[in-house]
Design a protein that fits this description.
alpha/beta; Glucose Oxidase, domain 1; four-stranded parallel beta sheet; two-stranded parallel sheet; 3 helices; 6 strands; globular
Length: 124
């Protein structure tokens, strides 16, 4: 964290609401693009992208481990290709779905992407 360029932390951010996805499902490139279209936003280099799965509301319960969706390999690559440098997700599943874990983790590390896990939302 101490080696992350400070300018990466002062950029536009966007929340991609994936709460509609079933538990255990994978967020695809089409899901990301559809969500961006719905909110009329185009990803640009250095954007901070936060994935909202809704699982944060289960924090502190055993359901936290079984709820939510995760990023797939292709959607992870697509966001990297857009120039995103910081990604986050509100679940323990990190930024990607379990069976893509090692590959996606490697993709993010190789592309110098900072990842934030377990953040919490406050929605009205």
């Amino acid at each position: 964290m101490d080696e992350v360029p400070l300018e990466w932390c002062f950029s536009d951010g966007v929340v991609l609401d994936m709460r509609h996805k079933p538990d255990g499902s994978v967020v695809t490139v089409d899901d990301v693009k559809a969500t961006l279209k719905k909110i009329n936003y185009n990803i640009k280099p250095f954007d901070i992208v936060l994935i909202m799965t809704g699982v944060d509301k289960y924090w502190g319960t055993t359901d936290y481990l079984n709820k939510g969706c995760g990023m797939g390999r292709e959607s992870t690559i697509w966001l990297c290709d857009q120039g995103v440098k910081i990604m986050g997700i509100d679940s323990w599943k990190s930024y990607f779905f379990d069976y893509f874990f090692e590959l996606s983790k490697s993709l993010l590390l190789l592309n110098n992407i900072l990842v934030v896990n377990h953040y919490r939302y406050t929605l009205n």
